Amino acid sequence: MLAGLLVLVGLSAVLGVLLTLLARRGGAGDDQDVDAVCALLPQIQCAQCGYPGCRPYAEAIVRELAPLNLCPPGGEQTTQALARLLDREVGATPTQGTFRPGTVARIDEAACIGCARCLPACPVDAIVGAPRFMHTVIAAECTGCQLCLPACPVDCISMEAQ
Amino acid sequence: MGDLLLIATGAALVNNFVLVRFLGLCPVLGASSRLDNALGLSLATTLVLTLSSGLTWILDYWLLIPLDLGYLRILGFILVIAGTVQATELVLRHSSTILHQRLGVYLPLITSNCAVLGVALINTGRMSSLVEALVFGLAAGLGFCLVMISFSGLRERLAAADVPLHFRGVPIALVTASLMSLAFLGFAGLSQS
């Protein structure tokens, strides 16, 4: 009876201590840092950095898994702001990718075959359409991220000045 | 080596945990409607199954059996499994963001997966070494993966199929599962050789 009690108490204590240590090791202040980094990113969730959105990219930056210059919509300004906030060197590496903020996607409606492949590619749901119906872009919603271009099998999407 | 192979095929196919022993049915029926979810859940389950199978074996053989505390087995095992799940979640969160995003939401669910406790309890008195226990856990997990992934593939097809009104949803899923279970009974012939 006593042995059983001791074993259970000991087991729980060991597990508790181990889990606490593991949880501490990751650093408790993570969340605030991620919030601060995330606030500097443009929040258009375009995924051009290779992460699913701005917050995942911010998390990767805080854990030092990703460089600061992966955000084309934010451009050089964002890279510098991130470097100041985190006190990290970016060196002479320019921001990767090209992004023209003044552009929106336009679908050549005569060429559109209604395949609906560009719909899931759009991070801000700015493309209207359904399978076998012509699609179009809501210009006011489009962020110009160009993610719909590779999705189109007939290359009927082009970037135009706003 | 031959023993290990026998244990592995036994746990993965002949006595498949889901379709022959009917353990861990809740995630198979509950989380199998999409293939990518099923993949994440089954990989996370395999990881936890292997770890917890080894850890509960250690607990059993080093602590419970020498102290003659067999009656504490279920309680102790549940503690260890819950601890393993939590630890895996923490390690994944800090070490691999992408893996944590894929598997993170499913990990807490595994605590209450009866296949995990089932593996630990079946280990008792059958596995003579830690390696055997680990292989048993891994094979049980792979068997779980096999069923989970093929079942969710079938369900994705069923979602587009013209199922009679009263069979739609859970009924047709149960019919599918029972047919798969019948098919897996065929593996019983393997144990003779």
Describe the structure.
The complex is a heterodimer of chains A (162) and B (193). Chain A starts with a helix and ends with a strand. Chain A contains 5 helices and 4 strands. In chain A, 37% of the residues lie in helices and 9% in strands. Chain A is mainly alpha-helical. The longest helix of chain A has 24 residues, at 2-25. Chain B has 9 helices and no strands. The mean pLDDT of chain B is 86. Chain B is 73% helix and 0% strand. Chain B is mainly α. Chain B has one domain (2-191). The interface between A and B is medium-sized, with 19 and 20 residues.
Fold topology:
The complex is a heterodimer of chains A (162) and B (193).
Chain A: H1 2-25, H2 30-40, H3 54-62, H4 75-86, E1 103-107, H5 118-121, E2 127-128, E3 136-137, E4 157-161
Antiparallel strand pairs in A: 1-4, 2-3
Helix pairs in contact in A: 2-3
Chain B: H1 2-14, H2 25-30, H3 35-64, H4 73-95, H5 97-103, H6 107-110, H7 114-123, H8 130-160, H9 170-185
Helix pairs in contact in B: 1-8, 3-4, 3-7, 3-8, 4-5, 4-7, 7-8, 8-9
Give the helix/strand class of chain A: mainly alpha
Beta content of chain B comes to under 5%
Give the number of helices of chain B. 9
Tell me how many strands of chain B there are: 0
Q: What is the percentage of strand-forming residues of chain A?
A: 5-15%
Distance between the termini of chain A: 78 Å
| Number of structurally distinct domains of chain B | 1
Q: How many angstroms separate the termini of chain B?
A: 16 Å
Helix content of chain B: over 70%
Characterize the main sheet of chain B.
none
Mean of the pLDDT scores of chain A?
82
Rg of chain A, Cα atoms, Å: 23 Å
Mean pLDDT of chain B: 86
Which strands sit side by side, in order, in the main sheet of chain A? 1-4
> What's the assembly state of these chains?
heterodimer
* SS element count, helices of chain A: 5
Low-confidence stretches of chain A: none
Poorly predicted sequence stretches spanning 5 or more consecutive residues of chain B: none
How are helices and strands ordered from N to C of chain B?
A: HHHHHHHHH
Name the shape of chain A in a single word: elongated
